[in-house]
Automatic annotation (TrEMBL):
<dbReference type="InterPro" id="IPR000890">
    <property type="entry name" value="Aliphatic_acid_kin_short-chain"/>
</dbReference>
<keyword id="KW-0808">Transferase</keyword>
<keyword id="KW-0067">ATP-binding</keyword>
<dbReference type="InterPro" id="IPR023865">
    <property type="entry name" value="Aliphatic_acid_kinase_CS"/>
</dbReference>
<keyword id="KW-0963">Cytoplasm</keyword>
<keyword id="KW-0547">Nucleotide-binding</keyword>
<comment type="similarity">
    <text>Belongs to the acetokinase family.</text>
</comment>
<dbReference type="InterPro" id="IPR043129">
    <property type="entry name" value="ATPase_NBD"/>
</dbReference>
<dbReference type="InterPro" id="IPR011245">
    <property type="entry name" value="Butyrate_kin"/>
</dbReference>
<dbReference type="Pfam" id="PF00871">
    <property type="entry name" value="Acetate_kinase"/>
</dbReference>
<dbReference type="GO" id="GO:0005737">
    <property type="term" value="C:cytoplasm"/>
</dbReference>
<dbReference type="GO" id="GO:0006083">
    <property type="term" value="P:acetate metabolic process"/>
</dbReference>
<dbReference type="GO" id="GO:0008776">
    <property type="term" value="F:acetate kinase activity"/>
</dbReference>
<dbReference type="GO" id="GO:0047761">
    <property type="term" value="F:butyrate kinase activity"/>
</dbReference>
<protein>
    <recommendedName>
        <fullName>Probable butyrate kinase</fullName>
        <ecNumber>2.7.2.7</ecNumber>
    </recommendedName>
</protein>
<dbReference type="GO" id="GO:0005524">
    <property type="term" value="F:ATP binding"/>
</dbReference>
<keyword id="KW-0418">Kinase</keyword>
Length: 353
């Protein structure tokens, strides 16, 4: 069985072909930034990205008649349960409309269906950012107008749950875990009986990250918004994109920060340790959601490669549960595995409605 994987990002589109678990070819198609700027909306980039993928398919002599399934990164759709979904017409319409907001991943389903419909290939997506399994009590904030919403790095979080269950010969629905995805944004999730019952929204809450502020002193945020120094768009950029480590140190590259620490930079050391400190605090919060019944704490994402960061988190949280390290987190492989579970009849695809 061959699976074609499509994963659109802000300035590039990752594409890969697998035969079962074996990688045949994988490429990151980098799009011209000036060309992208000419489009008013992300959806308008559809033709540019589809043509680039079709060119890649032709250059690599990929026979689409041999493809068993296409699987795409999930876009910002309405809240859904975890799982693998058919990319149906209702989902396509919601992606076009941007019901959950604008993001490059919204193009995944549209491009996948354009190729799939032409060659009679089923198209799937799984565990998008919009996965919502939160318990009602977790949704309440201090203002009724601002309920907490479930948005997370669900694709990698769920992939870690699948992997842990398989490696430890246990059913997912029997697992209580805390999973911390640590990348450009940080999502720390409480997994109760296999479901994400609580998670910080990585764009608005939780620990600060290499490029996001996480939770902030709310009254001071109000003061900043009305200070006259920043526009609406500038404030949003400060919180997501130019916040966190990049705001303090001018870089979102954790490796660069660690090099500065090695060279005796005390400010870099303090900020880096503060980020680890906040991640550990969030893990403790999620352990409380599970009443301390935690099988393991899983640390994943690109930051999980940092020995310095991991040591701080382990020192603060290992009293809760054993630590499991799954550094990195390949979205392409996670997408592939979701399609293979359906093709092998391990999992039934869900219908989006």
């Amino acid at each position: 069985m061959k699976v074609l994987v499509i994963n659109p990002g802000s300035t590039s589109t990752k594409v890969a072909l697998y035969e079962e678990e074996k990688e045949i070819v994988k490429t990151e198609i980098v799009h011209d930034i000036e060309a992208l700027k000419r489009y008013k909306s992300i959806i308008e980039q559809f033709d540019l990205r589809l043509n680039a993928i079709n060119d890649w398919i032709e250059r690599n002599n990929i026979n689409l008649k041999e493809i068993s399934a296409i699987v795409v990164r999930g876009g910002l759709i309405k809240p859904v349960q975890s799982g693998t979904y058919f990319v149906n017409d209702i989902m396509l319409e919601d992606l076009r409309r941007g019901v959950g907001g604008e993001h490059a991943s919204n193009l995944g389903g549209l491009i996948g269906r354009a190729i799939g419909d032409k060659h009679n290939i089923p198209v799937y997506t799984l565990d998008p950012v919009a996965v919502d399994e939160m318990e009602d009590v977790a949704r309440i904030s201090g203002l009724p107008e601002l309920p907490r919403k479930s948005q997370s790095h669900a694709l990698n979080i769920k992939a870690c749950v699948h992997r842990y269950a398989m490696e430890n010969s246990v059913k997912e629905e029997e697992l209580n875990l805390v999973v911390a995805h640590m990348g450009g944004g940080i999502s720390v999730a409480a997994i109760k009986e296999g479901k994400i019952v609580d998670v910080n929204n990585a764009n608005q809450m939780g620990p600060f990250s290499p490029e996001r502020t996480g939770s902030l002193p709310s009254m001071k945020v109000v003061d900043l918004c009305y200070s006259g120094k920043y526009s609406f768009d500038e404030m949003k950029k400060k919180i997501v994109g130019m916040g966190g480590m990049i705001a303090h140190l001018g870089t979102n590259d954790a490796r660069e920060v660690e090099r500065r620490i090695q060279n005796g930079d005390k400010k870099a050391k303090l900020v880096f340790e503060a980020m680890a400190y906040q991640i550990a605090k969030e893990i403790g919060r999620m352990a409380a959601v599970l009443k301390g019944d935690v099988k393991s704490i899983i640390l994943t994402g690109g930051l999980a490669y940092s020995k310095r960061l991991i040591e701080i988190i382990i020192d603060m949280t290992s009293f809760i549960a054993p630590i499991t390290l799954y550094p990195g987190g390949d979205e392409m492989e996670a997408l592939r595995d979701g399609a293979l579970r359906v093709l092998r009849n391990i999992e039934k695809p869900k219908i989006y409605s």
